[in-house]
User: Fold C2H2-type domain-containing protein from Penicillium vulpinum.
Amino acid sequence: MYHPAAPQDQNNPLHLPIYECWFCATQWIGFSGILFHLEDGRCVKKDRIRTLAFECPEYGFYGNRLRDANPFFCFKCGAQFPQISHLFHHVEHTPSCSYLLNNSECLGALRNFYIEYYECPGSDFIHY
Ligand SMILES: [Zn+2]
Ligand SMILES: [Zn+2]
Assistant:
């Protein structure tokens, strides 16, 4: 018997975790979703998400150089990315690379770094 998928399953077929923006309370599918939103520069200072990626101690496992056209790469397959949200999107959707999101791996460490950082946002938060 055919059971149509629930709407949220169509939007989130991989059952990625949902993250709520620390500043505007919008909800995003996967950590790549909230990073893409924050890179937009409306909730935190423009470019802060990119520079913050290089302040995490693990950056040698996913970062080239900040000024490169593609500052980020996948440690598993070597694919290059212009934004950190693109790298997270890649590993979320590539089963052979997704282990990098584990807490003990580089992108899991970066995710936790962002989360800990923005629980105490300091001067990055744009006040309206
Ligand atoms: Zn927001
Ligand atoms: Zn990869």
User: Anything to note?
Assistant: The CA atoms of residues 15 and 69 lie 31 Å apart. The mean pLDDT is 90.
